[in-house]
Structure prediction request, 688 residues.
Amino acid sequence: MSVKQVMESSTTITSDECIYTWKIKNYRLLKSKVGEKIESPQFGVGSDNKKYFNLELYPAGVNKEYAGYLSLFLKPVINSINIPDKLVCKYTLSAINDKKVVQKVPDHHDFATTGFVGRGRVQFFELKDIDELISLENTVTIQCELEIFKDYESSLDSEIIYSKDVTMDRMKFDFSFLCEKLSDVKLIVEEQEIPAHKIVLSAASPVFKAMFTHDMLENQSNTVEIADIPHTNLTEMLRYIYTGEIEIKEAGSIIELLEVADKYQVDCLKTKCAKILGTDLSTENAIDILVAAHKYKVKNLEDEAIKFITTHIESLSNSEDIKEIDDPDLWANLMQSVVKSQKNQRIEASTKVTSDKCIYTWTIENYHLIKLNVGEKIESPQFGVGSDDKKYFLLRLYPAGRDAESAEYISLFLAPVIDSTNKPDKLVCRWTLSAINDKEVVQKDTTHYDFASDKDLRGYGSSKFYKLKNIDKLISSENTVTIQCELEVVKEFESSLKLYNINIANQINNKISLDSLFLNQEFSDVKLITSDENDIPAHKNILALASPVFRAMFTHDMLENKSHFVEITDTPYNVLVEMLRFIYTGDIVSTKVDIVLEILAVADKYQVDSLKIKCGKVLCDALTTDNAVKILMAAHKHQAKYLEDEAIKFITTQTQLLSNSEKMKKIDDPDIWVNLTQSILKSQKNSS
Prediction:
């Protein structure tokens, strides 16, 4: 028998990755001119030889040619004494509103070839659609998914393959697909017959080979009944076996085909399905693909799915789909990937447009006495806005209109009071001028303007603010006109990283001391029988006051109320005594973790919430890498939220524990995994 040596080599381009999110708050306060930009905080990518970048945003366009667009660029921050020869980056710039991507621009570029200037899109987003970009919180969110290529890693694999296998692998049987000619077996599925050929099926599938080479019913009858696979899926498997192709494209159908390929051990079809699914990964199907890849042991696909989910873990961790992962091994693999991804940073920054605000009310008394001509004005007293570097303004009112064109209106303007020797470069303001009569707003006008864009820094407002024919609606019964100005003066940009802190109040309830009655036969009217057949004297009123469960027993026509005995078959004496100690004295004596966990369970069963909190406090103080997983699972099971949060917080900080797959595999509840994943994401943001 001849043999053939098959060699495969691979060259991997290694890279550092980062997902950087930049939030620009109070976006509508911006009043930028064409060519004016704002810059994000710098962010670093990689661990060794870190590279730094920032984003440049031109809210009104980078130049006059692109004045109708928002322009966006990624720019490397280069040290002039250490200029790299290459800086090859693959990146995607996205605009996101309420978790929905409204614009997305990918690029691949070597910044060293263009002098390390910023690169992106001059026509990133049309300004006429700007409302689609700005969130309800007046925030614009830009995300940059950045990959920086580092170096090359090569490997060579060789394998000896028998020539008959190579030949069979390359053979095509297109002419025989679904063809009756030379068919020697029928596959019966959903009451339909599919003609096939034993030799072809045997060559492709060890399962079929076993059927047709042993004394099995299928070999004798020349029919194979297949009860658990749909007709379409079986047909697709046969199409691949005979032609090497498949026609279905939808991810859900490919996953079903993967199941069939696994059942019949058609490994090359499993590889084909994995390749298709690996290129079709999305936030909608990634969880399903991961679960299928793990179930059918397609390691490469499982790795790709985990990598994809890790990259998009922030959005997926909030979805119901992630709870479909019910295999602890899979959760452990995913968690280790998320932890390792801390090297490939996820950074979140915000740039906030800060401002000073003021509400100024101007009341003009004896308004009917005013007799002014067109163009004549009255001015309010000056008012200042802000604490440091206060800005001064006044209101100008033209009772008969500012000019002939506005002669039938009241004209109203806001004007800055500027020292001619110290004119600002920018004075961006957003304000609302309102006319108010008897606390009711009868007219309202909102404006956004940079006073510095007018070289004379004149007033700006509405020449046709209010019609004179309706003047009586404006003047109050006391013959006054009230004008209110809600003014916001933009100051500067403040950049920061988002930090998360957990502050939980100590909710331990103060209790009335009943120490003298604890374990005391005096006045006892009920006995609690424990699982180890000990009896404990107690008092119905006290138990009913502490526990809704006991209250129900003693206030309804139940056996426990009639017999004055309560059998508690699932709790030993030492644990039940500790619950009673707390009910009577407000304290527990035992601090052993295992005992306190049992006390937590009985406190949850009898709904003694204050005892649950007490146990939570004791267990929080006792958290170690040896018991943290056990405490977390108990806290979740018994709905001790504070304890669960603290246990998750502790585990998140313990990289050694997170890397211990055996310990982490003990977590068998998807909800816990989701909460733990979200905590790790938050800790990554904080460390960034």
In short: The longest strand covers residues 139-162. The mean pLDDT is 81.
